[in-house]
């Protein structure tokens, strides 16, 4: 039997094949975590990747448009895939994946081997992926819920929208035509008459005033019950910024600046987000951060709707400077150290249910040729391979709907499982080396066949609706109730069958 024989240790961020169906292609996933369940089994938390066959034709057209735009931007003609043969273009489509942010948990026993997935590099030739086994690339992100595709890379933002326009120097006597009110406001003058020592002394005064203000404030005395804690809170950046702003507004006059720190109403108390938030709000924030990460919009909506987005973001960056953050970081590191980092996957030798035995292979006639062979082929013991048209293989596998009796050779079956398609392109994508019954309509017209069983020809079931005599009579007798012309234009309106039946009983 064909099987993936391997002995590997799987680590986090490995790309692997998962098998969820004996007949469908393997799933491609990236391992994020390895967890042990209560019954001792190992589960892998994985990121999902999707193949072209998994997304809608509308999104495929969008992906192809994106690929064409990338081809046009390529300066090196050797990297451009336009000149590749049709067969290689066809196989290259099987190497393209679409990343998603979707996570799922799968049993580690379903892992069938490792593969390699990389973000498409514009400096790398696409043909290089065909030269490597189990190599895939992606450039777009697929959202299964919203059914959208987005580019998975940062954008270099160049232009007037993102960079400032550097204006020419004003000539002598020329006025600046810009609205100066919309320009920057200077908040500090480094060439002020004050010395560094005087500025430092004023900052000490500002901290002292801040400590005294906290002693007078009831809520602050509860949050910082000790003098040491109050002094530490008064030494935060918000106090220093206020002090320097006061100096600038008073024209760097120390006397006026000190007077401004203690107006008539009492000393000014400056608090930042770290001090404004209560302990319960801080706990809510940490819980939200654990659940959503740095998605501050979701954190605000679900956990802290009374806080502004600016307040939450400012608090986050202050929280990262605290001992609490350092402690949590150490705990997470210790937890990660205790988690499973690798798992041993034994050899997988179970026979595939799609594997055909020698007795199950029956001769077939395709287009007047025995076993579907091309002219010049020798009749064999069964149909030719649907992909490469070989008639000899050490093992065959059934492929597609059972009534079609299609099969693949061992090599093409492995290709189908790994890459999700057939090796050879269809007639619409390029000429194949021989006829195939599944690509022809009953009248010999070529039909599209994507290499997937879900696109196989289905037999349409005919039906005949036979009405009773009473029903046919009611159409004429009860025309005023049925109103056939009106109902023909409004087919979903309900019909009062009881009234019609009562009318017919009177006849």
UniProtKB/TrEMBL annotation:
GO biological process, one term: response to ionizing radiation
Keyword RNA-binding: no
Alphabetic keyword roster: Acetylation, DNA-binding, Isopeptide bond, Metal-binding, Nucleus, Phosphoprotein, Ubl conjugation, Zinc, Zinc-finger
Molecular function terms from GO: chromatin binding; histone deacetylase binding; sequence-specific DNA binding; transcription coactivator activity; transcription corepressor activity; zinc ion binding
Pfam families reported in the protein's UniProt record: BAH (PF01426), ELM2 (PF01448), GATA (PF00320), MTA_R1 (PF17226), Myb_DNA-binding (PF00249)
Locations listed in the record: Nucleus
Primary site of residence: nucleus
PROSITE patterns, A to Z: BAH (PS51038), ELM2 (PS51156), SANT (PS51293)
InterPro entries referenced in this protein's UniProt entry, alphabetically: BAH_dom, BAH_sf, ELM2_dom, Homeodomain-like_sf, MIER/MTA, MTA1_R1, SANT/Myb, SANT_dom
Domain (BAH) ranges: 8-153
Boundaries of every ELM2 domain copy: 154-265
Region (Disordered), start-end ranges: 428-451
Residue ranges constituting the SANT domain according to the UniProt record: 272-324
Record-linked SUPFAM superfamilies: Homeodomain-like (SSF46689)
One cellular-component annotation, GO: NuRD complex
Family: Belongs to the metastasis-associated protein family.
Name of the protein in its database record: Metastasis associated 1
Lineage: Eukaryota, Metazoa, Chordata, Craniata, Vertebrata
């Amino acid at each position: 039997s064909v099987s993936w024989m391997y002995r590997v240790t799987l680590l986090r961020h490995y790309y692997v094949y998962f098998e969820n169906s004996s007949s469908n292609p393997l799933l491609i996933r990236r391992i994020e975590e390895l967890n042990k369940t209560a019954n001792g089994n190992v589960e892998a938390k994985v990121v999902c990747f999707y193949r072209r066959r998994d997304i809608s034709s509308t999104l495929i057209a969008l992906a192809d448009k994106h690929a064409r735009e990338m081809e046009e931007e390529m300066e090196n003609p050797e990297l451009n895939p336009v000149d590749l043969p049709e067969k290689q273009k066809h196989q290259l489509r099987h190497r393209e994946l679409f990343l998603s942010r979707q996570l799922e948990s799968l049993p580690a026993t379903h892992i069938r081997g490792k593969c390699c997935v990389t973000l498409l590099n514009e400096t790398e030739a696409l043909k290089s992926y065909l030269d490597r086994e189990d190599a895939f690339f992606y450039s777009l992100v697929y959202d299964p819920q919203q059914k959208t595709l987005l580019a998975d890379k940062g954008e270099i933002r160049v232009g007037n929208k993102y960079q400032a326009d550097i204006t020419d120097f004003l000539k002598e006597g020329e006025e600046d035509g810009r609205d100066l009110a919309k320009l920057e406001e200077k908040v500090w003058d480094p060439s002020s008459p004050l010395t560094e020592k005087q500025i430092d002394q004023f900052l000490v005064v500002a901290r002292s005033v801040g400590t005294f203000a906290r002693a007078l404030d009831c809520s602050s005395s509860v949050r910082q019950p000790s003098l040491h804690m109050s002094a530490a809170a008064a030494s935060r950046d918000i106090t220093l910024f206020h002090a320097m702003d006061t100096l600038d507004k008073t024209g760097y006059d120390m006397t006026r600046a000190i007077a401004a720190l203690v107006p008539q109403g009492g000393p000014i108390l400056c608090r930042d987000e770290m001090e404004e938030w209560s302990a319960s709000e801080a706990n809510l924030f940490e819980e939200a951060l654990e659940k959503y990460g740095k998605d501050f919009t979701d954190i605000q909506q679900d956990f802290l709707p009374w806080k502004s987005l600016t307040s939450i973001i400012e608090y986050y960056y202050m929280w990262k400077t605290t001992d609490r953050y350092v402690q949590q970081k150490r705990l997470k590191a210790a937890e990660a150290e205790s988690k499973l980092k690798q798992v041993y996957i034994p050899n997988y030798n179970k026979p595939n249910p799609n594997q055909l035995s020698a007795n199950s292979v029956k001769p077939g006639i395709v287009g007047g040729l025995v076993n579907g062979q091309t002219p010049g082929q020798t009749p064999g013991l069964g149909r030719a391979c649907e992909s490469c048209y070989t008639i000899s293989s050490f093992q065959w596998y059934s492929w597609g709907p059972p009534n079609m009796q299609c099969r693949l050779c061992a090599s093409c079956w492995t290709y189908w499982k790994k890459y999700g398609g057939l090796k050879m392109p269809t007639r619409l994508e390029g000429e194949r080396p021989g006829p195939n019954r599944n690509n022809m309509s009953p009248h010999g017209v070529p039909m599209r066949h994507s290499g997937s069983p879900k696109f196989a020809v289905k037999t349409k079931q005919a039906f005949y609706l036979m009405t009773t005599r009473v029903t046919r009579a009611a159409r004429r007798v009860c025309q005023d109730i049925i109103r056939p012309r009106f109902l023909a234009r409004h087919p979903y309106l309900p019909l009062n069958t009881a009234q019609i039946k009562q009318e017919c009983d009177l006849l």
